[in-house]
Amino acid sequence: MSTITVKDLRDGLPFGARISGITSAALADQAVRQEIADTFERRGVIVFEGVEPSTELQVQISNVFGPLKDHPSKTTTRVDAERWPGVIAISATPDMCIVEIDGKPRISWQPWHFDHCYNDELNRAGVLRAVTVAPDDGLTGFADGIQIWNDLPAEAKAVAADLNVIYTLDLLYPHQRFGLPASFKELRPYANAEQILRNAAALPRAIHPAVWTRETGEKVMHLSPYMAVGFEGQETPDGEEKFHYVWAEVLKVIRPYWHSWKTTDMLIWDNWRMLHEAGGCDPSLDRVMHRTTIKGDYGLGRFEGGVKVGATTSAM
């Protein structure tokens, strides 16, 4: 029987795990696969350390958690569509925007969010590995919705408990109402801004609960300020102020983990539970990530007005 080692992601952190000893041979052991899956359900984030940096192993690890979801956009860069459908490459491109955070220019930066908030369905998880690591910055942050909810003050819980959030696919930073840091500046806008707006207009607005309860009983604070329009039925100045209040309370209690990448790391996060943030890096630096996405849905999202869409669009 193959053995793996499981330990805490970081001392004192109530979520996340590190697993070492993962190989193709280990993943052939059903007991090992079950231990990995159980750890994921309990901990929400797993860093697989010291793994072979290969696409094949990334797919094998991903398949422990479910079937892969291919990216619907034909223009998204595939690693090898013939051999590895569902594996995409993420890197800086000339049409990407450049922002400034705390006085530093950054490319590939994104604020706290969960994937596919603009769809009625949420993918189960994302799996990342670093192919080219930026020598500085390039960190990825993860925050646990269970921890956030547990640590929120009672007043904020009472406000957020029964709210639904409206989201769109509008990624343009000048249009974001919530969640941008005070030091944020846009230095170079998206070159394909018009296409981004067309993509957003092609989908109805999506609605997801700000708080939901897992089958295991834990409540999850699941609020993405990025791409949020506001609270359902409260698109008013008072409703906007309420959103700002709730998010400010989240930031007071959030206990994030920031991952500094190695090419021998792979990482999976629970998209129904975790928020993540792309810290970005200097625009002059190379940074390439390979990603797989795990199919699934928690069943609580919907499109406004009960609209059904045959093929949803994915960009995150």
TrEMBL record:
It comes from the Bacteria. Gene3D superfamilies: Clavaminate synthase-like. Residues 11-293 form the TauD/TfdA-like domain. Pfam families: TauD. Signal peptide: none annotated. Its cofactor is Fe(2+). Keywords: Dioxygenase, Iron, Metal-binding, Oxidoreductase. One of its GO terms (molecular function) is dioxygenase activity. Belongs to the TfdA dioxygenase family. This is Taurine catabolism dioxygenase TauD/TfdA. It comes from Pseudofrankia inefficax (strain DSM 45817 / CECT 9037 / DDB 130130 / EuI1c).
